[in-house]
Design a protein that fits this description.
Low-confidence stretches of chain A: 1-23
Oligomer: homodimer
Number of strands of chain A: 20
Largest interface: A-B, 102 and 103 residues
Distance between the termini of chain A: 66 Å
Helix content of chain A: 25-40%
Radius of gyration of chain A: 27 Å
Chain lengths: ~500, ~500
């Protein structure tokens, strides 16, 4: 195990060496992590220091040791305080102990600090790193907080389980704006939106609508759109079609793994989790306890995460210098054990690899294209709120979907029972089962579960109030039907806020 | 345009030729479709005839002409009658006219007839067909009726849109059983389940639970499981890991496209849509109007769909004979224009390709592995119901999630207001926003939308009735809060039927 105080001392002297006052330096919370974490972090900090990165690390303990001390998420109150103060987190991989009761540290940090954007560059380094797709150079920007990952699940009947997919305007605006701002500061030319809005017209439709709205503010950046099915397929087979990709949470989860696997560079990739207040940077690989302490691990993933961090804190020039030196090192054939191939000229240790990068600071790669980062438009801390709440629409309540659990009645019998409970203001319009209309005029082949969605609507779209709905619900339950769930039906500024039934 | 009656006559004489009475023949509904449809169907039927397939085609009109006659889904009542009578549909590709108001024929047929399983073999034919994955030979079995595709979407507030993901026990049982039965009759060794049950523990958890339950009835078939993110990635990069894959609708949609694209064989692939009553077989490619009528189209996709159909109607021996002759034709280098490469020995027309297959009936491929299909265990029409409803669990109502639309109150203020409405039986337990707990003890960084989920639960899990919930809802709405949605909280046989809040 490395001694934190040593690393800290090394770094502080380094910062003084290059003539920068530590007062001006940007405080950064640093965690050495578990397994190979300490050694790759040491190599990374050495490069940052040599390149003149103006940062002041604060070291915190996270991970295995902390879990085993009884902190269920592997992090202490002191560590939280540091994160909330510095707002920037460079994190080495951690080991989650096996056994129940340990929560994912990353999920905890993401949820607690509201890290809404997951940023994952996926780049091929052929011929030095084996890849199926040598022309891959793209960045996936995945919404990180909502969609099906809100964890709102209910068993509603004996047969039917439900998960809510929530897509929100602020969630969409924040991630889409981040994607376009990222494209701008990273010299990217195109942003592609991936959704399934031919099926999910309201939720995924909102995501794409926001993409179009915000995209219009970035005329210099090209826009493209793929349905997620064919988009995933093209990402796997023709990644050169993509530059920056922005997508909701679940799709982003899937395509991030596809892209990482196809690029062949999982050991070399960094990623960022960005919030309005705090941002976290890390390698995408794990703590690799099997090779820990041997000095053979490749520090590239963490180093490239640190490069992302430097752009984030507006030290783009240093970031470019480090990234270009790293590219030169790889193309010079100076490789750690994991990359050894016929293209290797010298196999080196973790520390030696860091030194090789340091020796090349100021040089540009000749086979790879050099990078040139731009600072983001403003300091992250001073960014205006990414979402401004809009004025409320004129919302009118015009009906309700009542969900009923029953197995005894046919669709026609159910309709009759429900109609006996309907009020002047709320009339039964249709019944669906798994979204397919079964009344009026269903198909004999439709398989019916025990879960019925019964739509009541005000005649001629008159407006109702919630009291009318409660009266209806009372009537339905008085008739022996088991109401399990309701969804109000509203218009917003006169526009229908609900989908029609299939077959309606 | 081909004349149906000719094709029909050709086929009937064929059936008589091989000495089979048309009375014994299996009636099959056949649609010639649009574009290249008629010519590839003619070549396909010629092969079926020569191989001795015992079928009696009934020709129906679907597609462009029918759309333009004013049938919004491109199909007539007569065609529905034929489908409902024969229960087997061999369908050539159709053209959907451009313009609004035309509904997808495939979606209409799938929904109307309850085609719950989409079956998509994805096979590489290297070196004759260019592919990134020469070792690919897998079948994707996608649930086709539920999941997020039920089309139940609501705009709930100014900021929040919702889509329901429904996963049902009958839906899971039907698709999982189909997958294992398919594996058995097609000589497949392994079924892999792909879900995201580490996140969606109840919905995707149910799918995986059913996979384990039903899988236990097939001890000779290996079982495997992948989380959909890494599963998709492995499918794209190491498809040889997979044999049969079974997965819910959305994931199946995505991985079907990935697999088809990676295999390189989109022009050669057939697919099936299977229901309890009716099954439909087709090529996965479109009607290709640009090359229609030239006699150059490749009939392989439709022919291989017909092979799937023959297995379905328990003519496995004929299916194997045709499939092996087709493999031999491809490896002999007899190719239509789309496949011409250095491996081609003779470029042929659509009809000539069919004749080449016919000449090889009875031969086995030498480079490709021969196929040998088994008849399914029973005739599809006689299959016992795929789902037997289980006895109801003991359901106890113990609380309710009340969703509120508001922007004026802080979480603490909202809690106070709600508590003033709570009853003896239903106490406020927590409030979440996009699934993250904001009361009690929220995090200051949590971004809040205008959509609040407020959980009321009976103290010490006492039981309540729906009247108690209506009383609570009345009280909440009396206090000026806008209730937009409710979800009952129940236990089933004492097991909690709802997920806890994140941070709870």
């Amino acid at each position: 195990m490395l001694d934190h105080s040593n690393l800290s001392a090394v770094h502080e002297s380094a910062v003084t060496d290059v003539g920068l006052s530590t007062q001006q330096a940007v405080p950064v919370t640093v965690a050495l992590g578990d397994g190979i974490g300490p050694e790759i972090m040491q190599a990374t900090l050495a490069v940052l220091h040599a390149a003149g990165a103006n940062i002041a690390p604060e070291f915190i303990d996270i991970g295995e040791k902390v879990y085993l001390q009884g902190h269920s998420a592997g992090i202490t109150q002191d560590a939280w305080q540091s994160l909330r103060k510095t707002k920037v987190f460079l994190k080495a991989p951690v080991t989650t102990p096996s056994g129940k009761g340990f929560k994912s540290l990353n999920v905890t940090i993401r949820k607690t600090l509201g890290l809404y954007a997951n940023v994952r560059p996926c780049i091929s380094y052929a011929p030095f790193v084996q890849t199926q797709q040598p022309k891959m150079d793209l960045v996936i920007i995945r919404e990180n907080e909502e969609d099906l990952y809100a964890g709102i699940e209910h068993r509603q009947t004996d047969e039917v389980f439900q998960c809510l997919k929530l897509i929100t305007r602020p969630g969409c605006e924040k991630i889409v704006r981040y994607a376009f701002e990222y494209a701008r500061s990273h010299g990217r030319k195109k942003v592609t939106c991936m959704v399934k809005d031919n099926i999910m017209k309201m939720t995924d439709g909102l995501f794409y609508q926001v993409f179009e709205e915000i995209g219009a503010e970035y005329p210099e950046i090209a826009k493209d759109r793929f349905i997620i099915d064919i988009g995933s397929a093209r990402l796997a087979t023709r990644p050169e079609l993509f530059d920056v990709v922005v997508t909701p949470n679940l799709y982003g989860d899937i395509i991030s793994d596809i892209a990482a696997e196809v690029s062949g560079s999982i050991g070399l990739a960094g990623s960022a989790n960005i919030g309005e207040h705090v941002a976290m940077f890390e390698a995408i690989h794990g703590s690799a306890p099997d090779i820990a302490g041997q000095g053979v691990a490749n520090p590239s993933g963490l180093l490239l995460a640190a490069v992302m961090m430097l752009v984030h804190i507006r030290q783009a020039e240093i970031a470019s210098k480090i990234h270009n030196a790293w590219l030169k090192t790889i193309e010079d054939g100076i490789h750690t054990a994991d990359l050894v191939s016929t293209h290797t000229t010298l196999e080196v240790s973790t520390e030696q690899f860091g030194q090789a990068v340091i020796q090349r600071l100021g040089q540009l790669p000749s086979r790879f294209k050099p990078v040139q980062y731009q600072n983001p438009a403003v300091k992250p801390q001073e960014t205006r709120a990414l979402y401004q709440r809009k004025p409320a629409a004129k919302k009118a309540l015009i009906g309700v979907d009542v969900f009923v659990h029953q197995t005894q009645l046919s669709p026609a019998q159910l309709a009759e029972r429900l109609q006996s409970a309907q009020t002047e203001l709320l009339e039964l319009e249709m019944i669906t089962n798994r979204g397919v209309k079964v009344w009026p005029e269903g198909f004999p082949e439709t398989f019916c579960t025990d879960h019925w969605r019964c739509r009541f609507i005000a005649p001629e779209n008159a407006q109702v109030d919630y009291g009318n709905i409660l009266t209806l619900l009372f009537g339905i339950s008085q008739r022996g039907l088991d109401v399990i769930k309701t969804e109000n039906l509203c218009t917003f500024d006169g526009i229908r806020g609900f989908a029609l039934g299939q077959g309606q």
